[in-house]
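Table S2 (continued). Query chain:
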Amino acid sequence: MKHSLYQQAMAAAGWLLLLLLCVACSDEGGNNGPEIPEIQYARVTISLGTADNATPAFTKAGEETTLPDIDDELYEREISDWWIVILDRQKNVYDVLSSELNDNWVATSNTADNEHEVGVDLVIGESYSFYAFANLKGLSNNDAVTYLSSLHKGMDLEVSKAVELKEITAYGAEEESPVYIPMSSYPSDPITVKENNNKVELLLIRLLGKVSVEVNNASGQDMKLNKVTLSSFRSGSIYLLPYDAAESKNTKNLLATNMESTLAPSFPTTATSTFFSDRTLFENGITLKGSGEEATTTASIYANETLFTSQTGENASKDLLITLDVEGRNNDPISTNFSFIRRNDWLKIPITISNAEVQVTPKQMHMPIGGIPAPLTFKPGAILAVQDYYVDHAGEITFDYELTKLNAADAAGWTLKYYKSGDHFVSKDRFCCVQIDENGTDKQPGLILEPAKGDANYVELPWLSKEAWGFKMTPAKVTGEAAGTETESTTKGSFTIRLQELVPNANTSTARIKLTLVATNGTTTVILPYYINIKFGSQPAAEEGA
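Corresponding output:
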């Protein structure tokens, strides 16, 4: 009986094996049942880096003429912790990567400049977009981290989420437990994953701004700077994402190269109560020498995003005001003409304290018949050492300059100090010079045509550096005491620049030159730095006659 059952079982097994073979052969023929395509993945490399500060064109720094002469700190680019949210073709959450959740990504690099590369495998042929966040522990609470941790596949990303920064003075590199600056990005453009060479770059934008003030004592006398007050910055809720992205606008304002009123920040409608408060620099006071390197000092603060026009109250201003407390000086507030500061902006503000009055008169080749060029006047006292000059066409512009007053009297007895090729000088010597301080961006060519080395309008400035150059300055001619003779003026001169033709987007392009006048009376040397913004277009009505 056992043998008979064994034979029956073997026979049944044989028939089953034959049936399976037939099914397999039928499937290979493709006639019975659909094929299931195999999902293929490819590596996508995501680069995380900190965006450059958006510096207003009329305070942007150049290499040799940086004002203030400082770079952003390595600390300010630090990426301590990060999050990446991946959205699918339908804009739903596909995945969340984080340095806090080391499970579905691979670190491909981490540079000394705090740039990170992260690798993740995604489906070939599918489209994805990406958001990035960093240093979220630097927010006032853990809400953003908790929220991102809760995201899972198929959910919507809340782009208008509101957060608050810690106390703004908490950020700094010298703390025992540093609070790194929180950052977020714009969404990347969607990419469709290919078999290879899939790369995404995400620029992280700081959620706060920065203001640097340089105070230059050009009086020729030592003076006590007690403090500098900046009025007044907003506190309260801001968007976690850049404000235009949070409002579903594809403008990417914070990556723009110029600052127009349309780029002013906006805030969550559900923002917590806000208030405005002043910030103080040099609270313990500082002595500025009458000459030399110790005649200049620079200090910086971090600042909340602020729309200064939204201030209320008796002393409310429509722009950022700076008040210097200097012994023996008029300490009236100085208007900077900054109506807002956004996250990641870096406002660089030069203040000159002097007893000098300087007039700079621009003259273009195509001045209207009978037109009289209006001089740009830099007055004595504590002033914002920047003025705007508007042009409507390319070509040559000659700037006449004149030192008219110094130490509450006319400039008689003072001589502008020029460098002549081959002259001996020591490292601390300074001479009159004209330099390009800002000219164009990565996206726009410069307005000013830079002369080549050897051109008549090109001069080397060896006391600054081996590579420094500027525009030729020519002292004015004055009639000598003897008939028919001419001498060089000690207080007047001119220089010429050329604006190039057909500049793209000329109405938003700017350039900036730095005019440094060095005057001496034999015993005292005074350095007077001034800045001229060159802008295409007509002067705004509010500025005319200012």
